[in-house]
Protein 1
Amino acid sequence: MKKIVLSLFISVLLTSCGSMKPRTTLINTSKPLPPETPVALLNVTDEVPKEALKLAEIKLLDNGFTTKCKWNYVIPIAKNEARRLGGNILKITKHIKPSWNSSCDQIYADVYKIDDLKKLERKSINDNKKEIDSTKSYAIIHFYRPSSMGAAIGYNVFLNDKSHKLTRLKNNSKESVVITTLGLQKIGASTEKKEEIELNIQPGREYYIEGTITYGALIGRPALRVVANDLGKKEYLKIPERRDFTHDYLLLNDGKVIKCEDLKEKNNTYFFRLKKKNKNGGSISINTSISKDRVKKVWYKQALIPQP
């Protein structure tokens, strides 16, 4: 008898693990759409077209044993459910972000059907025109981390591997970084476990990536997700500019003093980061370098601008 009970428990446990299962409340019926049908994703702040027909309400929640439940897993599951219901618009109504209670992205969403999806796509393109500058050969990624549990834990964010550091995310911090490495790239972070997302970086574009901390065995795990620009910008602006009173300084031969960060030297070159104010109220970090023969003197980690 004990073996039967144990077998049943293990069976339930195994079927509970893995990806989330959508829970659906049907409102209107429609013919299912083919798997390749595009589904538009609308965030909490996005408006649904008036002519769209609401088909259902769905939710994807953590059942306590869910393992594959980050944003990049959850959204495709929700879109597949929308297609099954005959919908081509997925409107997020509530997003519960990963926390110490759950490492999952949990969502509530509405499914809609619209006859002309291209109309919605054209509106999205027009709304984003001001965020795209086709004359630029680089992109800007706005990283931010809202205040939450795990305040004492910070982590570095890297591009492709740990040799290319982009920023360090501490609790309630933000930083904008200029990216010249374009195309499909991997952006990762690690504490006790590595977290990695993919981003197709295009010139002239701006992106928002939110970092958080989720529950871990020892110190917590980093979580990264790409956020829609309209929502990301609002969340980014809520975070105050971080004040760091230790910098590196370069005194050039012409008398100019450069305030910088992460100053390193290699061969006959100094490599460092410059910070400039941006229109979002934050700062942009630019990785650059200068030849040693242009530098007269160097100061490391100074609280105030040193006197030559």
Note: The chain has a mean pLDDT of 79.
Protein 2
Amino acid sequence: MVGKIPQLGSKCKISCDKFGNYVMSGPLPIHYSFWMKRRNFLLSMAGSTLGLTMAGRGVAQSGVVPLNISEIAPGIHLIRNAGANIVAATTPEGWTVVDSGASAAASMVSAALRERAATPVQVLFNTAWRETHTGGNEALGGQDIRILAHENTRLWMGADFEIAWEDRTHLPRPHSAQPNETFYTGGDIDVGGLKVRYDYLPQAHSDGDIYVHMPDHNVLVVGELLGVDSYPVCDYVTAGWIGGMLQANKNLLELTDNDTKVIAAYGAVHARATLQAHATMLEAVFQAVTDTYRSGQSLQEFIASRPTRDFDDRYGNPELFLTLVYRGAYGHVRELGRIV
């Protein structure tokens, strides 16, 4: 497999050998050079693929099934069964949408928005790079609208790369589907009187995660940063890790009160209590993987210790989660403390 990163120029290429190791050629920004070196090592730890994917976390939902649409606040709708959850707010100037769902559901989502307000989409946020969050970007307007995302989300969407634990190669998305307004921190916008705040939460699910907050309606969209009926994915290949996920959840809790409507990537509307329970689980597993590294235990020993035993009834099978947590922590051993 050989790919290019269009945003970095045609001389910049990523190639992947048969073992899943990345080989890069051409000039790269400092942050890319640093991350890819670390990623090569982490991928080399994988050995063979896990045989586990994110199919249960969005691919099944991306088929042609009826959308589940509910108004969660005046003029703000939650659209489910379209891949990752979509939040759409109507204003006199047009729609503001958070995530566009999977491509298979894009025509249904567009039709649903037109049925509720015959105004175009003005602003679209992508909270993550995955196709379940960005597959409808073109159908909702593409480059004719403002597509906001973290710069790293744009880079991943334009890259050709393999995620070994999924046993899947992700190809560059068309330019028309990519974000056209990127940022590194966060900001505020006003669309037809709708106030929206957004900010970056580093290295949690990936290195491009953001939240989107509509404070006047007390709606907080957190995407992949909250696992509801399954454990979250800390994708070390795209620079996610449990320490970042834990800190992200702590930051999100500071934005909520008991009346906040919290929208995860999947599932219904949740309350602050769900986010707090998630943070409690992450804290326990973070401490467990820290202790594992300090004692020099293997991945198999970490899983066998059952660090999620108190949470499995709520989140299900922990195997993929624990594997990603263990492998992702390797790139952060200094942050774990008292190891090197």
Note: Residues 1-52, 55-63 have pLDDT under 50 and may be disordered.
Protein 3
Amino acid sequence: MAWWGEVANVEIQRVAWSSDGMTSSTSCCFVGYELYLQITANRSGVLFNVANDGACRPAPSKRETALFVVPMRSATASCVKPGSMGMGYPGHLVKVIDEQGTECPVGVPGDVAVHRCDVHGDPDSVFFLGYWNNDAATAAKFTGDWCRTGDLAVRDADGYLWYQGRSDDVFKSAGYRIGPGEIENCLVKHAAVANVAVVPKPDSERGALVKAYVVIAPGFFEAHTHYSGAPAQRDAELALDLQAHVKGLLAPYEYPKEIEFVDALPMTTTGKVQRRVLRLREEQRARDRFSDGEGG
């Protein structure tokens, strides 16, 4: 059995986080990119009764267009690359572009965009006609003839796209552009992390600090007894270890300057972390600090 879209998100969560380690009869899942990154980084893995080269596939869920990026083999890559969004669907013109609408070099993040015309120069049938009674919003989706999807990605030398997050989740810290997805994907690979969300914390000097909300994996402290002392001391030691973990894998400016441990993250019904809820929380806390005379 194959699942698609939001139903797939629910099905794959059921398998990935089931307490009894059940094996699903699902043959293939196409899920949203964020959940795909969580699943592929999940240490317990996902068990499927399949004979192909991978049952879990990321797929775009844009409402303005039909499917235009799919996991596939390329002329220079012998197999589908796990964790990749895939490549532009044959017939469509898909690129990663910068703010001016120019294609980004290999390895440089930018917006995933689809040209309004297909490879034959005809209007591409994947596009919506426009937002209802909102011409300004429709025009804002385009830079020239390129429709920005709102997804950020980097392109590798084989033409595969690698998801970096949503453009509305990107923020700047001390002048550096921060994409939460890369930091979250790094943190969730640590044995202590069951789930994580990275958001900006308002700061008077840097504009924003990189902050991570972390859900600790069940049983982690019991299995790692070198974290001792009172809960506050134990959490502080783990926070330092998580910061060192990110520093060792990503750029120096990307590590979270602050880590807050929580029991759960705000989630949608389809398994996506609601970063907006956490951003608003940080903004409210900043306003409260300002009104109390604490500054940024």
Note: Helices lie at 5-16, 33-41, 135-140, 180-187, 220-223, 231-247, 275-291.
Protein 4
Amino acid sequence: MIALPDEKKGSRAKADAMNQTDSAASQPSLLLHADRLKQLYAALLRGRASGKVRRGREAILAAAALELGPDDHLLPRKANEVAGRIEHSPAGIGDDESFSDTSRLALATGLALGLKKRQQPGIVTVLVSEAEPDGELSHVFSFAAQSKLPIIYLLDSADIRRPKRKLHRGTLPVIFVEGSDAVAILRVIQECARRARQGHGPALIECSRPTSDPLKFMEEYLRKREMWSEDWRQSLAMTVKTKAARETKKKAK
């Protein structure tokens, strides 16, 4: 069981609390090496260049997309938000723009139930907003927790402070993360994905409204760890720009 961190600690401390769960054997999967961190930055850059992702929301989507495996399913709020940022094709990306968050939650939870019933590999990740009534959220979360479904709920919170909502406590692990910090979000998603794949059930990751630009936040993170190269950034930016132009031209035909 994940031990929830103290409310007064920062988002990085909350994310790091995930590193202490279950067993010491889980630790290697949480170590983000230089290549992985650069992949995360590249995903952020592709999201910004695509113009399809709401500014400031790139960290949530980049981290979610980066953790996808070939048997996994991702249900974003809009399918085109993850276009161009995934290196391989997952089992499915839901194109559910016409669905409400409640419908998307039900669809994702049903998909996770099907995977579990058929003993198929893969997990489900679903993005929702905090606009839905607590009662409806609680009902879905309780069912997923009781059934130990392989699903991660990513809640895009509009409140920069920790939400007052506490009804999810006791039904499934709830982790609060700063929405600007793509590294912390990815670490938490990795741990929640590991738990789900091992049959320990779902988790709810609640991301606050970004308090800074996720892309600049990530740049500073890499600089502090001496992983930054201006030549590398320029080369990556050129590659992303060229690929985006090629995709635009292809769609225009």
Note: The mean pLDDT is 75.
